[in-house]
DNA sequence: CTAATAGTAAACCGATCTGTTTACATTGAG
DNA sequence: CTCAATGTAAACAGATCGGTTTACTATTAG
């Protein structure tokens, strides 16, 4: 097994564990046992637990931003409708019964108030995600795509967090009704 | 010192510690040392760490819902303007340099995926807060105050979480611009 | 004065935490 | 075959975790 594969294997296992059970609540021992590796190997690939989590945020971002364009293109042909479809897509992830929220937000909040690699990685994800929304808004031909993207993100984050906390996809309906109004006014 | 006062003293100290440093990251030993009490006393007033946190969420809710009406009444005379003022008030809390988000959301997310007293307490807060927004919307004379309240909450949570994560009050400006549009359309 | 209450300090429990280190086994390439 | 790389298992470190219990000391009310 190559180095890259081994590292990916650790990432895959750690990702699920932290996503499901939280960051402080999950020890590196659990990651080791779940992956089936020794502690030495874990610390060969990652300098610290926080560095591992930071890389997992990167993994989350890459995964999400690879799947999302495909899914929203499947749901709607035009860029304008794809913004709405993004909310449908995210809601569907909750509908499947798993109420995992945003990996980056959860990590950021749990390490809130400090300056760790976790903060840096999550901020980088937020920026990347914002740029993606901006490009969608620009493609949609809206007047002020950058301003619109900022508004869309607030709605999106609000829906995601409320859904995770209440374990219900309902907040997405409220968010979508506002989004429809917002998009109509921004043409 | 009476029982109630002692308990309040523990709550006050624990509240600051958990709010600033997180829940799993803060041990009961730190709460003891900070309050200046023994472990036995702590566990006389609270059955467990999770029960303590659940009570702290109640404390957060009571505090917030006692101050908010006063502040927004100071900022705006009419109920319609007070909804907007609620965002100004919350933004001002961030502007003061402290980027503490919503205590209930933070606690809920950190204990996400399990069923603890923490979940119950935070859900109760969300309900109370929603009812408060509903009453503001009803007083404002809006068409469908319950629906509007759900939309307002999504915007509010989105702004709070994004501000905490990015340590910037900027998301409130995006949220407020959407809110203005929303309120204008809901008259 | 007495008796109950409420408190402290500290030992103790078993477990866990992140991280390092030592000793040894496996493997693959030259 | 040999040697270096890569891995495992496990001890070790020092600290912390949530929680219980014991022994002792103030305080306070009757």
Automatic annotation (TrEMBL), chains A, B:
Q: Does the keyword rRNA-binding apply?
A: no
Q: PROSITE patterns from the xrefs?
A: HTH_TETR_2 (PS50977)
* DNA-binding region range list: 27-46
Q: List keywords of the entry alphabetically.
A: DNA-binding, Transcription, Transcription regulation
PANTHER family recorded for this chain?
HTH-TYPE TRANSCRIPTIONAL REGULATOR YJDC, TRANSCRIPTIONAL REGULATORY PROTEIN
Give the Gene Ontology MF terms in alphabetical order: DNA binding
Q: Where is the HTH tetR-type domain?
A: 4-64
Q: Which Pfam families match?
A: TetR_C_13_2 (PF21993), TetR_N (PF00440)
Q: What is this protein called?
A: TetR family transcriptional regulator
Q: Which InterPro entries does the record cross-reference, listed alphabetically?
A: Homeodomain-like_sf, HTH_TetR, Tet_transcr_reg_TetR-rel_C_sf, YxaF_TetR_C
Phylogenetic lineage: Bacteria, Pseudomonadati, Pseudomonadota, Alphaproteobacteria, Caulobacterales
Question: SUPFAM superfamilies in the record, alphabetically?
Answer: Homeodomain-like (SSF46689), Tetracyclin repressor-like, C-terminal domain (SSF48498)
């Amino acid at each position: 097994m190559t180095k890259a594969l081994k590292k990916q294997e650790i990432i895959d296992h750690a990702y699920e564990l932290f996503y499901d059970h939280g960051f402080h609540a999950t020890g590196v021992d659990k990651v080791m046992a779940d992956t089936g590796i020794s502690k030495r190997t874990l610390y060969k690939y990652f300098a610290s637990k926080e560095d591992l989590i930071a890389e997992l945020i990167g993994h989350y971002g890459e995964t999400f931003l690879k799947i999302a364009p495909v899914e929203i293109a499947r749901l709607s042909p035009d860029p304008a409708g794809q913004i709405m479809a993004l909310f449908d897509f995210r809601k569907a992830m909750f509908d499947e019964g798993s109420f995992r929220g945003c990996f980056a937000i959860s990590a950021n909040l749990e390490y809130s108030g400090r300056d760790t690699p976790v903060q840096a990685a999550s901020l980088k994800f937020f920026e990347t995600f914002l740029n993606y929304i901006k490009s969608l808004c620009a493609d949609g031909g809206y007047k002020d795509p950058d301003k619109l993207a900022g508004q869309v993100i607030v709605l999106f984050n609000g829906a995601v967090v409320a859904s995770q906390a209440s374990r219900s996809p309902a907040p997405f309906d409220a968010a979508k009704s506002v989004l429809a109004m917002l998009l109509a006014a921004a043409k």
